[in-house]
Amino acid sequence: MSKGDTIIRFENLSFQYSEIKHILEEVNLSVRRGAKITLMGQNGAGKSTIFKLITGEYTPEEGRMMVDKGTSIAIARQVIPREEMKLTVRDFFLQFFKEKVYDIDPRIDAVLEVVNLTGHKDIYERTIDSFSGGQQARLLLASALIQDPDILLLDEPTNNLDHAGIDHLTKFLVEYKKTVLVISHDAEFLNAFTEGVLYLDIYTKKIEQYVGNYNDVLKDITIRIEKENMKNAQLQKEILAKKAKANQFAFKGGQMRLVAKKMREKAEELEEDIVDVRKEDKTIRQFAIPVQSDTVGSIITIESFTVMKNHKITERTANMILRKNQHLLLRGPNGIGKSTLLESMARGTAKGAKIGQGVRVGYYRQDFSTLDFNDTCYEALKKAMAESGNRPAEDRIRSVAANFLITSDIINTKIGALSEGQKGMVAFATLVLLEPGLLILDEPTNHINFRHLPVIAKALSMYAGAMILVSHVPEFVSQIRIDEILDLDK
Predict the structure, then answer these.
(1) Which of 104, 134, 252, 350 has the lowest tally of Cβ within 10 angstroms?
(2) Which CATH number among 1.10.4080.10, 3.40.50.300, 3.30.565.10, 3.40.640.10 corresponds to the domain 6-213?
(3) How far apart are CA 233 and CA 239, in angstroms?
(4) Do the beta carbons of residue 429 and residue 452 sit within 8 Å?
(5) Residue 305 forms beta bridges with which residues?
């Protein structure tokens, strides 16, 4: 097939996880060969499910999903599964080939060059868990690129990437000649290369297809909503007028009653013409993270730390004390050791950092491994509340959960079954119930719907305890009160 022909087609496709969890209902769409498409929708709407239908991991309940015969597909996953963390880099890449590959090392070199992850000594023998979160994100991208697929599926590819990493990825995608479907909440990244949008509506279970980039679609949707609201307002006005006249004529008796009946029928016809205005994604409610009340004096003291510089561990000195209501931003490129430092601080094992006695630590980890994936949402929130010293109260737990869109239909779902964005919502809800004295946040924007970010930024800015933040998203950081900056690269 030539460029421009249809490569993916959904025909009246429906999919559901269970009797109560419907994802898609009679969806029709087509994607042409060589297109670069954004897949949008609210957290939990089923964007990653679309990818699994395309790869064949999921099968439609009804209808058909067709991919052009002989088409190769590769997906860059959001996270590396825990069972793959001990694989060497060479074995990690080899698993993506069905047949034995004899020239794997040169292929690895080529894709690592694309994702800007080069210069590491003996990289083929290093285990995946020896890389930082940002470096693992690059390995995920490279694992898809090494397959040179006809259809490239990218699920939140900019998560954990620093500015240089995003620039490298953007340049590659602009020049890539094959079909790309990408899930992302990064508007600037999407606008750089996408030419169409598939919008998965969580309310109608349909997919709306738009031409243009991310910004174009937002404008189209806004105009459509305004038109629908104007049309509905005019119809409501006519309906009220006809019902009022019908009531007047009904009391006059005789022939007027027949006129009144016709007017009521006309009003009912107009009511049927009222359109369902497209519902916007729900945004989490404003929230606050309560601070541990019995913390006094220095909450954390940082005298030294180690970084990875030119592939060597280097120790640096510092002189920093964080007390209540002081916020610290940690900066540095991927691979320098930010996540490692945060984890050692949270565990209390960092040699040069000391947390005050009795200080409760709220740790938001980018892979959500602080949560037990076998717990239900309710169980995780109950544990957090118990850890705070407060007696777990069901009404408080459910109220906080609802603030983060953890509603009654998912609160008893196991965390491992949630989307990555929903796991993030659970993680923030646990921080609220934990009432920490020290907040440690590692890339808290990853997987989070862009509509939620201003609400989260405001809550972090208002947090009255000590806070240490790592984030590669300048727009998010600019909305948060930062008192100190520690640049690990300087």
Answers:
(1) 252
(2) 3.40.50.300
(3) 10
(4) no
(5) 316
pLDDT of 453 > 80? The answer is yes
Domain range summary for the chain, segments of one domain joined by +: 6-213, 218-273, 300-487
Distance CA 486, CA 490 (A): 9
Nearest to 442 by CA among 344, 387, 363: 363
Pick the CATH number of 300-487 from 3.40.50.300, 1.10.238.10, 3.55.50.30, 3.40.50.1000: 3.40.50.300
> Which alpha helices (DSSP H) does 274-357 contain, by range?
338-347
The CA distance from 473 to 133, in Å, is 15
Two tokens, residue 217:
């679609």
For the segment 5-30, what is each residue's pLDDT rounded down to a tens digit? Answer: 899 999 999 998 766 567 888 889 89
The predicted model scores a pTM of 0.66
Pairing of strands 6-16, 22-32: antiparallel
Average pLDDT over residues 455-472: 95
pLDDT of residue 1: 41
